[in-house]
Design brief:
Layout lengths: L4 E3 L10 E3 L2 E7 L4 E7 L3 E6 L2 E5 L3 H15 L5 E6 L4 H6 L7 E6 L2 H10 L12 E5 L2 H7 L4 E7 L13 H10 E13 L4 H12 L4 E8 L7 E8 L20 H7 L3 H9 L2
Parallel strand pairs: 7-8, 7-10, 8-9, 10-11
Antiparallel strand pairs: 1-2, 3-4, 4-5, 5-6, 11-13, 12-13
Helix pairs in contact: 4-5
S-adenosylmethionine binds next to strand 6, strand 7, strand 8 and helix 4.
């Protein structure tokens, strides 16, 4: 990283984004990855792991609200929620806005990410101080192998599906997630960009379809992840996730009931982009 410019090195993207750097806030090697936080005049603080941007203060709410509130509003009574990855705490913050949630387990393989985010992104990592939160330092796929019928929702908020996060996107991991869910549980994972990763999105949709009865795709427009047209793959045992079951009365900046309904890919686009690839 030059003192004035950060060029993202994302092995999963065919494009490189660059940021003008106002200040280098923190640079450390954790046990698992290189962690950098810098400040940009436009995006505020930016978290980078192994050269890939994970969040910016400017637009993190879009991603975290959509990952959390779509399944949380589609489920009739979510009480037990599992987040895999998510060490910055943004998804956790949104999950804990729901009073129905009694337990939020965050399974993060690298708790040094949590420590850094509590220090440098306190407004994002606020949920780690909540008594409903349990933080477990472990690989998400391993954790799922031991869990049985415990969770209403499983949210995968991982890094790109290369390296350690790869194991979270296999059919065997989806089967483990199915077993870890209660009878009306739902699973959702961030699944990259429709522009750049159509094949990956199709593969995840097919893999989930081998395990769950109901599989859908919704998207959100993000400024800072390569490809921007970001996808979330959602799978459900019983309830249609497109249907809003509990009205939204929470403070949100992007998520709303009509946003929920319009976020799902229309059938013709789904067939063209995902099924026919
Ligand atoms: N929203 C972000 C994105 O899409 O770029 C992800 C943010 S969050 C910081 C991602 C976290 O997933 C990282 O802290 C990383 O340590 C964690 N992670 C990656 N693979 C994992 C695995 N197999 N089990 C548990 N945590 C994992």
């Amino acid at each position: 990283m030059s003192p004035l410019f950060f060029r993202e090195e994302d092995p999963f993207a065919p494009i490189e984004y660059g940021y003008r750097v106002e200040e280098l806030v923190c640079r450390r090697k954790t046990k698992h990855q290189e962690l950098v936080i810098f400040k940009s005049a436009y995006f505020g603080r930016v978290l980078v792991l192994d050269g890939v941007v994970q969040l910016t203060e400017k637009d993190e709410y879009l991603y975290h609200e959509m990952l959390a509130h779509v399944p949380l509003h589609a489920h009739p009574l979510p009480t037990d929620v599992l987040i895999i990855g998510g060490g910055d705490g943004g998804t956790l913050r949104e999950v804990l806005k729901h009073e129905t949630v009694k337990r939020a387990v965050v399974v993060e393989m690298d708790t040094e990410v949590v420590q850094a985010c509590r220090e440098f992104f306190p407004a994002v990592a606020v949920g780690f101080a909540d008594p409903r939160t349990q933080l477990v330092e472990m690989d998400g796929a391993e954790y799922l192998a031991r869990a049985r019928g415990e969770f209403d929702l499983i949210l995968v908020d991982s890094t790109d599906p290369v390296g350690p996060a790869q194991s979270l996107f296999t059919t065997s991991c989806f089967s483990r997630a199915f077993s870890a869910l209660k009878a009306d549980g739902m699973f959702v994972a961030q699944t990259e960009s429709l522009h750049f990763h159509g094949d990956f999105v199709s593969r995840v949709q097919r893999g989930l379809g081998e395990v769950f009865g109901l599989v859908k795709l919704y998207t959100a427009p993000l400024a800072t992840y390569a490809g921007n047209w970001w996808t979330f793959s959602i799978a459900s045992k019983r309830h249609d996730p497109e249907h809003v079951r509990r009205s939204c009365q929470l403070p949100t900046r992007y998520y709303a009931e009509d946003v929920h309904r319009h976020a799902f890919l229309p059938g013709s686009l789904y067939r063209r982009l995902v099924e026919e690839g």
